[in-house]
Specification:
Helix content: 25-40%
Strand order of the largest sheet: 3-2-4-1-5-6
Radius of gyration: 19 Å
CATH architecture of the largest domain: 3-Layer(aba) Sandwich
Distance between the termini: 6 Å
Number of helices: 10
CATH topology of the largest domain: Rossmann fold
CATH superfamily of the largest domain: Phosphoglycerate mutase-like
Length: about 325
């Protein structure tokens, strides 16, 4: 682990979303409901994450108090033999009028409100002036405000939810709330931040035997596999079996064709960093993503009218560690 910009040992935060819940499997909104519980698949994911993190040097865990996250954390921490404490700020986004409802039914029955949620999350109002996304971002910012100094030099596991993980990343990197839906956090995916402000990797899923994260928005538009030449040499074997429709070797606007496409972009690292910063909203200081720019980034462009979803930013070290070599996680 590298020292922070101040010279002190950096605190490393490993964020993980809980495994599959029954509400996930049923396509229902969870929010702050404590009804959802882990499925057998969700418990298996906890075991996979625990085995993968056994050499990460984790000293403690902090978890959402909601059952699906609490149980996921408990299973991991029992294996790692580290203490876990709950933090209410890590609860999922609060969507009181929708919790328990099927997402497909919401799209059919409340198309205007659902459209506003998807396209303008930062200004989405649920009821009586309640704005769920700004409230979530305030909780995430408060978590970072005291955690980086409180756990100085430690490696801390943070077990939370999809929306909360996205808000934690966004507030750490100065990503605007209008990009709330532009970051993907898969069940069991790992996101790592050093000193709570420098991105190491985002939604890494190689430990779950996934070549690439699942497409949250389906097979539409263009998926861009973005990496530098060195990363391409490292990640080549992982991409075996992935159908590549087009190879790009210089930055250019994304070209949409007929049907879904997967494009491989192999660029120099500074160009990769610029593409990542643009995908995240151009507000991210370069030093906060320079390490991440050395790996594989997957961007999913569903249409020319929307910013892409950043599906993953993974590093070669993650893959080498997965293969059993002695390297520090994503260092």
């Amino acid at each position: 682990m590298q020292p922070s910009r101040s010279g002190r040992p950096a605190t490393r935060f490993i964020l993980v979303r809980h495994g599959q819940s029954d509400f996930n499997a049923q396509g229902r909104v969870q929010g702050c409901s404590d009804e959802p519980s882990l499925t057998d698949a969700g418990r298996r994911t906890a075991d996979e994450v625990a085995r993968y993190l056994q050499r990460a040097g984790i000293s403690r865990a902090i978890a959402s108090p909601l059952r699906r996250a609490r149980d996921f954390a408990g299973r991991i921490c029992s294996f790692l033999r580290v203490p876990v404490q709950n933090d209410d700020r890590l609860r999922e986004i609060h969507l009181p009028l929708w919790e328990g409802l099927e997402i497909a039914a919401l799209e059919r029955n409340e198309p205007e409100l659902y459209f506003w949620w998807r396209e303008r999350p930062h200004s989405f109002v649920m009821h009586s002036g309640w704005r769920p996304v700004p409230d979530l971002y305030a909780r995430a910012a408060a978590f970072w405000q005291d955690s980086a100094d409180r756990f100085s030099g430690e490696t801390v596991l943070v077990v939370t939810h999809a929306g909360t993980a996205r808000a934690l990343v966004a507030t750490a990197l100065s990503i605007s709330p209008d990009r709330f839906h532009s970051i993907q956090q898969s069940n069991g995916g790992l996101t790592i931040l050093d000193a709570g402000s420098e991105l190491v990797c985002l939604n890494a899923t190689g430990h779950l035997s996934e070549r690439l994260p699942k497409l949250k928005d389906g097979h539409t538009g263009v998926r861009v596999l973005l990496m530098g030449t060195q990363a391409y040499r490292e990640f080549g074997p992982r991409l075996e079996g992935v159908a590549i429709d087009r190879v790009i070797e210089a930055p250019q606007p994304v070209q949409f064709g007929q049907g879904f496409q997967t494009q491989l972009w192999v660029l120099d690292p500074p160009a990769v960093a610029r593409q990542i910063a643009h995908a995240l909203g151009d507000n991210v200081p370069e030093y906060r993503i320079r390490k991440a720019a050395l790996g594989l980034t997957v961007l999913h462009y569903t249409s020319s009218a929307r910013p892409p979803v950043v599906q993953t930013i993974d590093l070669p070290e993650t893959q080498r560690w997965l293969d059993g070599n002695e390297v520090e996680i994503c260092a």
